[in-house]
Amino acid sequence: MDQVEVFKALSNKTRLMILQWLKEPELNFPPQEVDMKEVGVCVGQIHQKAQLTQSTISEYLSVLQRTGLIESTRIGQWTYYKRNEEACQELKRLLETSL
Amino acid sequence: MDQVEVFKALSNKTRLMILQWLKEPELNFPPQEVDMKEVGVCVGQIHQKAQLTQSTISEYLSVLQRTGLIESTRIGQWTYYKRNEEACQELKRLLETSL
DNA sequence: AAGATATATCGACTTTTCCCGATATATCTA
DNA sequence: TAGATATATCGGGAAAAGTCGATATATCTT
């Protein structure tokens, strides 16, 4: 895990928010077909909640995914994103030592 | 403490290194007149060790100081920088919850 | 007061990031 | 297969960050 890349990914208000929202998807997004806890939240929902264009949000989700902090599942025409809690934990551990 | 600003400050290899070096100044810098543990390390020493110009390092130290992660003391013509361990701890705590 | 030394600040240039709109791609449905 | 919908990617303009050299400022020494 490249620390600089992770910090860059976290250096943006919207991306930090997304990470927060995905912590408790049921609290932050309207009910879905899928189990949000299990599968995640689709791009459109995140796009609606963040007030930025679809392309920007898609890009931001890629940035976060590249760090490993979130992961995606494609189901039909939707891509669902959810946190990778293990990676988040590992990052915390990393920060514990590297900071 | 503005999270985005902190992460931006940490989004740079050199600044991360500086923060590391200042963790154990006696191990990372040649002996000085002053007690490095207590007072810190002067800009010139950090400048020599990081391979960037004096102005860049001075700027980077300001960036770090603005986050509160390091603090400075002027003694004569030297400015000494050292970690603010309390702030570093607080940041870790913040990350623990905000991440 | 003059010169030396350490640091900070300024102006400039380059690279990166932030966002957008437009378009491409994938999948679904009729 | 045609259209609809969801997402990804591409190209670009504006703003911010990275980095430098030159210069200003502060302090020390003589």
UniProtKB/TrEMBL annotation, chains A, B:
It comes from the Bacteria. InterPro entries: ArsR-like_HTH, HTH_ArsR_DNA-bd_dom, HTH_MetalResp_TranReg, WH-like_DNA-bd_sf, WH_DNA-bd_sf. One of its GO terms (molecular function) is DNA-binding transcription factor activity. SMART domains: HTH_ARSR (SM00418). Residues 1-99 form the HTH arsR-type domain. Keywords: DNA-binding, Transcription, Transcription regulation. CDD domains: HTH_ARSR (cd00090). PANTHER family: TRANSCRIPTIONAL REGULATOR, ARSR FAMILY, TRANSCRIPTIONAL REPRESSOR SDPR. This is ArsR family transcriptional regulator. The lineage of its organism: Bacteria, Pseudomonadati, Bacteroidota, Sphingobacteriia, Sphingobacteriales.
